[in-house]
Fold this sequence. Notes:
By secondary structure, the chain is an alpha/beta fold. Helix content is 37%, strand content 14%. The chain binds beta-D-fucopyranose.
Amino acid sequence: MSTETSHGEPLAFPPGFLWGAATAAYQIEGAADADGKGPSVWDTFSHTPGKVRGGDTGDIACDSYRRYREDADLLSSLGLSAYRFSISWPRVFPDGTGQLNQAGLDYYRALADALAERGIAATATLFHWDLPQALQDRGGWVARDTALRFADYAAAVGAALGDRVARWITLNEPLVVANNGYRTGVHAPGLRDMDAAAAVTHHLLLGHGLAAAALRAVLPSPADVGITLNLTPVRVPADANGSGEALERARLVTDACLNGVFLDPVLSGRYPEHALPALLPPDRLIENGDMETIAAPLDFLGVNYYQPVHLRPGDPDNLRRDEEAPLSGLGGVVQYRPDGMAQTAMDWLVDPEGLYELLLRLSKDAPGLPLYVTENGCAAEDYVNPDGAVNDLERVRFLHLHLDAAARAIRDGANLSGYFVWSLLDNFEWAWGYQKRFGIVFVDFGTQRRIPKASSAFLADVARANAVPPLPASWPRLGLAPELVERAGDFGGEPGIPGGRPRDVAVRVPGQAAVQAFHLVQPPDQVRARAARAAGQVRERGRLTGGADEHLVLADHAAGPGAALARLGIPLPRATAVTRHLVPPVRG
Ligand code: FCB
């Protein structure tokens, strides 16, 4: 394993490497019931009080259903060669099956045409979590029949768009559907049922296999069909103080539960031996031929990478700070968050070596199988500065580190063919609603204005050069003004990050403190004025949206909030203090 960074010289990607951005239908389209679309489980879930932060829904989201040309222009202006979007199943089959809704299909045809006109290759995901509610009412993925209906839907979409879509992804992150949707209930459809989740696991995999076959039957050849899995390296400390064996066992079990449950069936037609039995489907659900269907050769594997999991010896019944009970259910071991590692606004660890290791491992386990990073990115506390720019330096750093890791992995033998950043746009981040911004393009949800962030310019530069610039000799600690200033200056040589100014400073305050800081620095009448304006924007649009509830508010540090910030323990020697304010939801 190489852990060296690439100081000194740019690292090149292979010729023809695909540079893209990813989105998903429910997260960006809005137009929840336009042109005959049926409801999905996410429509139902987000409209159920208490399920999504702030009561946010995808009713309007980024309005990309209407603004897809503008979004295609954005991709094109960044020089990206590919776009990964998902198709909303209930837009095409409002009841999940039966009567096809031509208008829904036409939308995706128009989107694919808009991409083709701009020379952008379409990568379409068939299922990014928005199951038609009508199918949920018949059991959802607990029912084997849903896998068969998925294949019908795949065949219809493949026949209609086969000439326009370069790559097909059957499922996005089936583990998250089984786990969050049916086991923990934090995602739609919100069930908490271990047995249901185990059945869902098998039926999703079967759906993948059947849909892949259905696509191949209708697509012009060569057609690339794959699946996207979220994969998670599992780390244990090298020096385990005598618990080496228990830890290694926990590592194997955790790896099987997080990665093997979906990876092993698609790569080798069997469920992993180390996985917890409770996560696996009972034999009676596995019919003859299922595993062969699931394991039909893939044209590529899509990899979504965000962070690894760390295990260490500990007591799951007596957890310490930053510890969680291990997924493996094994005693003597806990999951933990190592001290001193950078974290994103989701509190996810920043660990680019995880991507490096994952890509090499996959290339070893599945030699010759092309890999795409179909998602990688981070949430950050983005804001529009007084000059109208969004200098998301944390995201630039994140992307730089991960692209460097990807380039090193290729150099060391990984079979990586492309990279899609998550995400093109700030969007509806599932149970987090609009509070978490992952875009390389900022979206002002009150006006739908798109503002490309500094990270989009960084990605565009990397794509254009087909190479990642050398990492700086040392990273400044993020979050403090002087270091950010240095970073803005030294990045990529002159002229540095476009629009970067020494006084751009994001104040990241853990938890509620950010809101507190806002109240302290912002005169109450200004708060009210902005809230009223936000409310007005929502009403003018004639619709209610959670998206407009969130407003970024700027406060000028020079106006005197220094003492207040100091009271909160935020060292901010100069410049502009920025924080987020959540305007109470507007009703009626
Ligand atoms: C992944 C999802 C994607 C997005 C990112 C942050 O799990 O596939 O839709 O929410 O996480």
